[in-house]
């Protein structure tokens, strides 16, 4: 019988196995929670310029020439060339017979998983003891990468990104372009595959406009590598490709309308930049959200700047930079550069615009990069401490995000489903009036009102429940109540049903948020008594409407109540100015 002696090596082996199993268990939590929440709230309903993908498929089908079809893929959309979005949409339609915004969301959200994997690969090659290696490491210590990866997963996979998560085109475009850019930076830092790297960089440019930042970032990385290694060939390949791609990108380009004419003061730009960088702090249960974002952004920017200056000092001192150094330097340049561009173009809208959900990924990636660098620059004894502190911080952020943005996510789902109702049923009968082209391309999302659709077209017969507020001002109706309690469930709540002899309209309401700290940390109800709803007069056909309450319980049961109240929408003789679009 063989006896295993209790040696130092065996104890280390057992400890590493234990660490690995703990890390894998920790990794499953953010992954499982993220996809579970997405599956509950996601609906196959387009929002705003999502509709352009339907138009794209119709236009693509009507084109008879190869050049015409290629034009439909490459034509400008706002300031972007969304070739990747259109390609995935077309493939989805060809594969399934109809395309689904859920599939676009799925593909986009998978890019977040891809970002976690890239950071895992970097962590697996970030051993500080090898940071002075003269050659690029080709082997990855997967065990090390997994052990230190959980904080990164908690930072990236959470509800901070609720707007992009549940928006088909935005998820596919905004998440995927960042994945492509980080993949390019990783390939430039850790491999010599310039051909594959150039291909990914081109795809990034054709996914979203900020993918163009990959070219100056990549050029700077290759320039530093070229000076160190006297290898100019890859730099020439990159520079030539960059000029070709950027020239073709802006061929026939038209500057879209809509950006504010004022950029704001210098102080506005700086504070906006810092708020953008620290926008992840909005998830925390604090009173002054904008201040928290600026503070976190200031700390993050200072740390990233210090890291970059330290790496550049190494380079100026003729010390060989490791692939890890190049990855950190390239990633920091992209994140900081994006923040500067967004602040410059969006600060005129106000600082609150710069901390919206659609920009949160840049903030959490900055935090993830700082964490990864600290792991790579500390010795084994301190790495566990850094990982532990990183895990606590990221766990608090993740948990806070699911509470802080739950109301936004509920509102978003209900807003999409009520919009779907209003454009689907446009007569006084429960019959869809969606045109044949659209019905051929996409199916309606299942909704809470489907089972009760026929009964909605009969007047409500329950007891009368008048609204406590019903006013009209400047072309907007405000409806509200101060007594109703709204449960925190995907479809639960009170909806406003407007009934005329011509048709029905359905509008969601916004419950009153419980601002108490106990609610912010999940110890009391998310909503207080009361709700409100603002309905634009231009959103309905001119007519007199009877107002009803449609109440959806947490279990999906529906009840309706007349209010005995009416609103009258009149035609607006002054036409609303048309928003200029290039799609």
Strand content: 5-15%
What structural category arises from helix and sheet content? alpha+beta
- Helicity range of the residues? 40-55%
Cα Rg: 27 Å
Which strand order does the major sheet show? Answer: 1-2-6-5
Shape: globular
In sequence order, what are the helices and strands, one letter per element?
Answer: HHHHHHHHHHHHHHHHHHHHEEEEEHEEE
Distance between the termini: 76 Å
List the uncertain runs. 129-135
Mean pLDDT: 92
Strand segment tally = 8
Largest sheet: 4 strands, antiparallel
Number of helices: 21
Can you characterise this structure?
With 583 residues, the protein is of the alpha+beta class. The protein is 54% helix and 11% strand. It has 21 helices and eight strands. A four-stranded antiparallel beta sheet has the order 1-2-6-5, with no helix packed on it. A four-stranded antiparallel beta sheet has the order 4-3-7-8. A hairpin with a 5-residue loop joins strand 7 and strand 8 (558-569). Helix 10 packs parallel to helix 12, helix 14 crosses helix 15 and helix 15 packs antiparallel against helix 16 (360-377). The longest helix has 34 residues, at 8-41.
